[in-house]
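[09:14] KT: can someone run the structure on this one? pasting the chain below
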Amino acid sequence: MKKFRGTGVAIITPFKNDSSIDFSSLEKVINHVINGGVNYIVLMGTTGESSTLTKDEKKALISFTLDTINKRVPLVVGIGGNNTQEIITQLKTTALKSVDGILSVAPYYNKPTQKGLYEHFKAIATCSPVPVIMYNIPGRTGCNISAETCLQLAHEFDTIVGVKEASGNMEQIMKIIKGKPENFQVVSGDDLLTLPIIAAGGTGVISVIANAYPAEWSEMVNQCLKSNFKAAREIMFRFTEIIELLFADGNPAGIKAAMNILNLCQNTLRLPLVPVSQQVHARLKKAMESIQ
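[09:31] RB: done, structure tokens below
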């Protein structure tokens, strides 16, 4: 699935001061990242604050984003959760005709076994009308999709075309890369690990920082994919401090602050998330100014 190779951006959901969706700012962000050269957009992921969106808002976001993208890049939509049957219902009732794939996070909170994770993604793969990218982020979900479970699913279901790996476990990630089917995509879910994951055989990243710096981060990823790691390191090290600050008070608070500094959206989040502290905001602004 070459359409998911390179730089995907986990796009933010801009909000107005009254916490309603700011579609005007979303249009600016979408054009900003496409003009910056990202390969595809991921809507309603963690960075998009999907857990605070209503069903009607999600439908409106998909429709608006498809219209704004206008087939310029592929669109992946976040459809996941810890209720397998509810996800199946969403897949059957969501308009996915023009969507290129879904990103489905491992079930959170109820902490399934590996057998439970296998059956969960089997059920999704069996009924999904579009390709599925699994999302492994144990720091948020409380459970880890093991390399063995990931590979079993990758080999048994053609619908499952990749995994966004945010475990931070390079040993596990390399096991997946070593044993995966040829066309299965192993995508970094961590900006700072993008370079080593691609060096090990991964195929790209679903990035947070690419919201703010799509051109620079896409160039870094492209240099990695060409095995020009010296050039890639030079770009990556320019942004290391900024990436660390983006996550200092949690995601997406950091990237919302950065996007506000760039005048691309309001610095507004939905509770229980709140903006970064004044100290982090000042440090972030200073770091961003230093690379301009």
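[09:33] KT: thanks! The chain has a mean pLDDT of 97.
[09:34] RB: yep, looked fine to me
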